[in-house]
Each structure stands twice: as C-alpha cells, then as structure tokens.
Amino acid sequence: MNGYGACCAVVEIMPDTTAGKQRRRGAGRPFEPGRSGNPAGRPRGVRHHVTMLAERLIDGDADALIRKTIELGLAGDVAALRLLLDRILPPRRDRPVAISLPPVTTLRDAVAAQAALVAAVADGNLTPGEAGEISGLIANVVRFVETLELEQRVHLLEEAAKEARR
Fold first, then answer.
1. What is the pLDDT of residue 1?
2. What is the mean pLDDT of residues 59-71?
3. pLDDT for 113-162, tens place per residue?
C-alpha cells in the first residue's frame, strides 16, 4: 500500500445532462443590436468603488509617492523608470507628418498627390503606414469631388430636360 488506498481507482462516468437544459444561441450576435445583455448594469462613466477608495487612500501622499518614484528612477530602478515614462510620455499613436502635397480639388490633383506620397515613402520621409493613412484622406477627397461633379452633371441634365419640354 502506498498510503493512497487501493492501487486502482474507480471513476464514475456521469452522463451529460446539462446540454439539453441550456438555451442554444444561434450563430452571430448573442444579443439584439442596440440592446445590452445587462441593461441594469453599471452606467457609463461611473468609476469602480475600489478605484475611488484607492484614490482617497493615496490622495494626501501623492506628492511624496511621486517624489519617491522619481528618486528610485534616478537611482537606476528600471521598473520605476518604466512607470514614470509610461505616465509622463504615453506611447504615441499618431505623429504629425510634414509633407508637401498639392491641393486636391480635381482628380488630376489626386494623382499628383498620390505620386508625391509614393516619392516620400521611397525617400524614407514617410512610413508606408503613414502614407496609407494620408492616401485614405486623398481617396475621401476624390469621392467628394466625384460626387460634386455628378451633382453638377445631373443638374445640367435636369435643366436641359426642362428646356426640351418647353
């Protein structure tokens, strides 16, 4: 005997009876669009009570805690440095891009602007991601220009149809 009882254990296999009791959801969204799964849940903007308690606890000592963290960071504590830098300089998601593009008011201007973007990427002045973002802006302007041109054409056709009826 090894202190654990018999050398063999008896395992009872229970039938799965829970599958029939659970309501099956169809594929896709579990809730109707625009309806929350918990409509009586926490409202937006309400802060968690633990967060508010922690803020009240450190409120009076915040200056001392910040000073101590700076001292630790200056002494070489890498974790303190990381904490300070994450709070002071959060990761930048976008950055301003200085590039000279022609004004885009026609479809030909859009072609020239796209060519300038490609040249800036080739020269290393822009990353491909930055150029893609700017290219999307140019594409939006192109859609506006096309819509304006179509509106003008429809207006001219309507005016010509009115003249033809007279």
1. 47
2. 81
3. 999 999 999 999 999 999 999 999 999 999 999 999 999 999 999 999 99
pTM, two decimal places = 0.45
For residue 37, what is the DSSP state?
A: S
Average pLDDT, the chain: 80
- The two structure tokens encoding residue 113: 């602007």
Helix axes 78-88, 62-74, angle to 10 degrees: 120
What whole-number distance in Å separates Cα of residue 17 and Cα of residue 30? 23
One DSSP character per residue, the chain reads --SSSSSS---PPPP--STTTSPPP-SS-SS-TT--S-TTSPPTTPPPHHHHHHHHHHTTTHHHHHHHHHHHHHTT-HHHHHHHHHHHSPPPS-----------SSHHHHHHHHHHHHHHHHHTSS-HHHHHHHHHHHHHHHHHHHHHHHHHHHHHHHHHHHHHH-
User: Is there a contact between 105 and 145 (Cβ–Cβ < 8 Å)?
Assistant: yes
CB-CB contact of 117 with 99 (8 Å): yes
